[in-house]
Design a protein that fits this description.
- The chain is mainly α.
- It has a single domain, classed as Up-down Bundle (Ferritin).
- Helix content is 85%, strand content 0%.
- The mean pLDDT is 87.
């Protein structure tokens, strides 16, 4: 039972991370400010790293990693598409809200995992998510 729950929970996190990568990629392509683009590329790389790490962990547990971001990805693309039409500041705000959502997901669902999977979430995924969240929060504050 733990393995099935762990795989389901990790796949939920994986969908969120894939969505984050897609959203950052979209924003980077539309930003006019090179400095902002550089910050976003760093965050996107962190999310890409988590995508790989979660896929690997799901496979180790005998599960099949999800391939796409699902509904959250479509929603994130819609939000980011609208935000980028309104400019860099709004795009950064939308990304920071996505980081809020990702952090809340990890904090809320971490305890649905067990043993090694929980250690992985607590010691690797959550601290990494906190770092990207903090980066985007700082970046957002510099634009006000």
């Amino acid at each position: 039972m733990a393995n099935t729950t762990d795989v389901e929970t990790l796949n939920s996190f994986l969908r969120g991370e894939i969505s984050a990568v897609e959203t950052y990629r979209q924003a980077i392509g539309r930003l006019s400010d090179e400095r902002l683009r550089s910050h976003l590329e760093d965050c996107m790389q962190d999310h890409e790293h988590r995508v790989g790490a979660i896929r690997e962990r799901v496979e180790k547990l005998g599960g099949t990693p999800v391939e796409g971001s699902g509904v959250w990805g479509a929603f994130a693309k819609l939000m980011q598409g609208g935000a980028t039409l309104l400019g860099d500041k709004t795009a950064i705000q939308a990304l920071e809200e996505g980081e809020d959502h990702g952090l809340a997901d990890y904090q809320r669902d971490m305890d649905k995992t067990h043993g090694e999977a929980r250690r992985f979430v607590r010691m690797e995924l959550l601290p990494s998510q906190k770092r990207t969240h903090e980066r985007m929060s700082r970046l957002k504050k510099t634009l006000h």
